[in-house]
Amino acid sequence: MDYEGLIIRPPSEAYSLLLQVTVGCSNNKCTFCGAYRQKKFKIKSLDQIKKDLHEASSYENVDRVFLCDGDALIIPQPRLEEILKLINTNLPNLDRIGTYANAKSILRKSVDELKKLRDLGLKIIYLGVETGNVELLQKIHKGVTYEQMVEAGRRVKEAGIILSVTVLLGLGGIEKSIEHAIDTAKILSDIDPDYVGALTLMLIPETEMYEDYVAGRFVLPDQFGFIRELYLMIANSNFTNCFFTSNHASNYLPVKAYLPREKEKKLKMISSVIEAKDPGQIRPEHLRGL
Q1: What is the arithmetic mean of pLDDT over 58-84?
Q2: I need a labelling partner for 184 at 20 to 30 A (CA). Which of 108, 129, 175, 244 fits?
Q3: For 2-42, how does the pLDDT look when each residue is reduced to its tens digit (9 = 90+)?
Q4: Is residue 2 part of a domain?
């Protein structure tokens, strides 16, 4: 397989074939993210994708494919349909195809176009929401408004594609911790995704947010401040049927909850951890990671 640079995928795609169809991220401006800073965005050639799929056709038991890098959905519809058809031809036992997407790239597709991609095997889209706070969305350079983020998420769901979104605990620092948590609960409720993954902010050198932290302009919550945000996000959310997790390696308190069914049970558990403030009940710093 021909991979350019560092390849990143969601934890749930650990056993998927990673097919790089784009290099980098079409936005690549988020102030907290350093994942694609060393890459100039481009769409890989169809010839190279064909070569990779030819190689993959000799692999055994490939039932899932994840399209890398940061935003494969930005590929124009005709080319993306062609790529999905090639995947299905070369990997006949495929169960699903997944991809990262940002709100802008989703909104470039109509619901009918998204349905066409679904029919060709695109079964799950991972959307980085990060926050529902209007000021923070602008400050971190997500490139979309609250309303556009909600529309993008709803469009994916209307097309019958599974929607998994990520949010970032701590993104507002101490100053906007409460507003960030409550506003994020609101945007999650408005989108009503199938999955939510809450990650905890880890500052990356050579990003704008890291520079603000070093200069003292941005102050992180403490360990239990992060967990309090998790509590507030769950407490103020209203989902139809969502699997909410904070089991990423970055998190201090791993939580898995089917919401709304397990809401009160999980809130009680999280509250007890916050009240105890016992470091022994949370993940040690040296075990956290990206």
Answers
A1: 95
A2: 108
A3: 999 889 899 899 999 999 999 998 888 999 998 888 888 99
A4: no
What average pLDDT is seen over the chain? 96
Largest CA distance in the chain: 58
| CB-CB contact of 210 with 177 (8 Å) | no
In whole angstroms, give the CA distance from residue 223 to residue 284: 10
Burial class (CB in 10 A: 0-12, 13-18, 19+), 33: buried
Q: What total number of domains does the chain contain?
A: 1
The answer to the question of residue 3 being in a domain is no
Can you give the residue range of the structural domain that contains 231?
11-278
Amino acid found at 31 = T
Whether 286 maps to a domain, the answer reads no
Give the per-residue pLDDT at 148.
Answer: 98
| Sign of the Cα pseudo-torsion (68, 71, 77, 79, in order) | negative
Please give the Cα distance from 70 to 43 (Å, whole number): 11
Alpha-carbon distance of 47 to 25, in angstroms, equals: 21
Q: How far is CA 192 from the centre of its chain?
A: 15
Give 207-272 as a DSSP string.
Answer: SHHHHHHHTTS-----HHHHHHHHHHHHHT---SSEEEE--STT-SS--EEEETTTHHHHHHHHHH
Residue 267 placed within a domain: yes
63 DSSP 8-state letter:
-
CATH number at residue 38: 3.20.20.70
pLDDT of residue 71: 87
| Tokens 């970055």, located at residue | 250
Q: Residue for token digits 């409460």?
A: 178
DSSP string, 83-133: HHHHHHHH-TT--EEEEEE-HHHHHTS-HHHHHHHHHTTEEEEEEEEE---
